[in-house]
Amino acid sequence: MTTLDQVHENNKAKVIVIQGGQRIRQRLGQMGIHPGDIITILRYGALRGPILIEIHGSQVALGRGIASKVIVEEME
Amino acid sequence: MRIALAGQPNCGKSTLFNSIAGYKAITSNFPGTTVKYTETKTHINGLICTCIDLPGTYSLTSGDPAELEARRHLLSGEVDVIINVVDASLLCRSLELTLQLLELEAPMVLCLNMMDEAQRKGINIDTQKLSEILGIPVIPSIATTGKGLKELFNEVMKVWEEKKKRKPLKFSKDIEEIINELVSILLPKRLVEEKIPSRFLALKLLENDQFFIHEINQFKNIFHQVKPLQERLEQAHGVPSDEVISSERHALAMNLLNRFLRSSIHLRRTSASPLISG
Lengths: 76, 278
Fold this sequence. Notes:
The complex is a heterodimer.
Chain A: E1 2-3, E2 12-18, H1 22-30, E3 38-44, E4 51-55, E5 58-62, H2 64-67, E6 70-75
Antiparallel strand pairs in A: 1-6, 2-3, 2-6, 3-4, 4-5
Chain B: E1 2-7, H1 13-21, E2 38-44, E3 47-53, H2 65-75, E4 81-87, H3 91-102, E5 108-113, H4 115-120, E6 124-125, H5 127-134, E7 138-140, H6 149-162, H7 173-186, H8 198-206, H9 210-216, H10 220-237, H11 241-260, E8 261-263, H12 273-277
Parallel strand pairs in B: 1-3, 1-4, 4-5, 5-7
Antiparallel strand pairs in B: 2-3, 6-8
């Protein structure tokens, strides 16, 4: 169990829980990120820039702050 | 007749708007281009209609000013037909908004925009099936070239003439029970405004939507009845009540998706992926 911003590039991770208030859950939910979903981490931005992920066939960029609130389980 | 274009950010509402209005609203390939709404008058089959281009909304539960503006407009009761514009290549995410719009129980047409983009991604949609499941007309279109727009507005006219109430899709049984319980509390009171369907209001209250919670706050006896219902949802699922509803909607959307997608989404190569996967 780690946070989304700790997963290695190119790896898949399963969302366990979103650690945050209603607003954060809503925001992530709108982008299609819910507990149980599988995320592919595509790329890390340079200099602690945003993280590019793929979820349900669409690409989304997340800031490190919000990504650190997503608790995931890294898959292989 | 007033038609409203509603949909998620960057799905082509303004592009569609431009092609019927002959007016250049600013469009770009970035979400959040439209912040205020624009209005135009057009002729459809000889009838003068007002068409409103709303800012994109990811959901109907939100605190974002652009999203509030869109929601206020949809709930104002001035809109006769909603055109839900959807990016066909991002269906899984867009369907959640469609489900929420259905909760408004207003006449609605689904416009599957960017069909060319979807085809390029290998997404093949059974529009007939989708229309059957949702109970609303589904029209594929490509707004940049104007393809499908004629059919779309023909369908809008038909829906408007029928004036049929749309039935929202049902959630799982235990959640539906709690919704019904709250609806039966709300129904006799004629709360807020009559234009807001009671099921929609009940859902928003269960989702702890600040705007509606604030509205209901004046009716103390109802306000006290909402809390225990929220808690029951929380206890049954072990997560906060807003998450229960949003995951339920998500699950419903995913379930629907499997039913009308003809072929699975192939792994597509993006500009970045060849570099990464080698």
